[in-house]
Amino acid sequence: MRILLAEDEHILAQQIKSVLSSEGRVVDVAADGAEAQFLGETEPYDVIVLDIGLPQRDGITVLKNWRARQIQTPVLLLTARDGWSDRVDGLDAGADDYLTKPFHMPELSARIRAMIRRQSGRTNPVFAKDDVVFDTRNNQVTLDGIPISLTAQEVAVLSYLFHNADRLISRTELSDHIYEYDGDRDSNTIAVFVNRLRKKLGPDLIETVRGRGYVIKVAA
């Protein structure tokens, strides 16, 4: 899953990115409102974490501009503890949730997970198909109850496919959601990650639709 973090406090931004990256997220950081608006309009993010007090263009203005352009990416606002009016303005402008500073990183992670699930139409944080179970709260994957070690990229691919279960996902779409903005996106490597997942979790977990992409089918 790919996240845009719009935060001008460098140390805080790096702390958040480090935590989210350790959880298998791909994080792009924007240090001002103009850059945030551009990235939010041109890149396919799963969640945007948006600080209200950004330089050049404030977060509320950025959010209003996104919504005016029909960009529906879920947005989590970061606000000052005493900024209740900012929270009201942000929610009215189209934010999906907010978190006041200072906050605990586990709460930020939990809110992001919940937003991703809601966007995908899922309520259960645990996904399962046959003997494979994927717990999104800690990225723990088991096969027949036995923990399976996955790389960060394998987790990213598995997470995106499970959150979009029963929907055909192209290699290009997968590539867009597992690499950073300035990363070397190679859709051909997606096949490598899928093959590794099949070797670790079984050949029937991920189906290939030749020339079109991949799907995890969980519907009865």
Largest sheet: 5 strands, parallel
CATH architecture label name of the largest domain: 3-Layer(aba) Sandwich
Strand content: 15-25%
**Total of DSSP H or I helical runs spanning 4+ residues:** 8
Order of helices and strands: EHEHEHEHEHEEEEHHHEE
Shape: globular
Low-confidence stretches: none
The CATH homologous superfamily of the largest domain is termed Response regulator
Instruction: Give the class-level CATH name of the largest domain.
Output: Alpha Beta
Biggest sheet strand order reads 2-1-3-4-5
- The structure class reads alpha/beta
| Residue-averaged pLDDT | 92
How many β-strands, per DSSP? 11
Report the helical percentage: 40-55%
CATH topology of the largest domain: Rossmann fold
The CA-CA distance between the termini, in Å, is 25 Å
Computed CA radius of gyration, to the nearest angstrom = 18 Å
Whole-number tally of structural domains: 2
Q: In summary, what is this structure?
A:
Helix content is 42%, strand content 21%.
Name a few traits of the molecule:
single chain, 220 residues, alpha/beta, Rossmann fold, Arc Repressor Mutant, subunit A, 2 domains, five-stranded parallel beta sheet, four-stranded antiparallel beta sheet, 21% strand
Can you characterise this structure?
The protein has 220 residues and is α/β, with parallel strands linked by helices. The protein folds into two domains: 119 residues, Response regulator (Rossmann fold, 3-Layer(aba) Sandwich), CATH 3.40.50; 90 residues, Arc Repressor Mutant, subunit A. It is built from eight helices and eleven strands. Strands 2-1-3-4-5 form a five-stranded parallel β-sheet, sandwiched between helices. A hairpin with a 2-residue loop joins strand 6 and strand 7. Helix 2 packs parallel to helix 3, helix 3 packs parallel to helix 4 and helix 6 crosses helix 8. The mean pLDDT is 92.
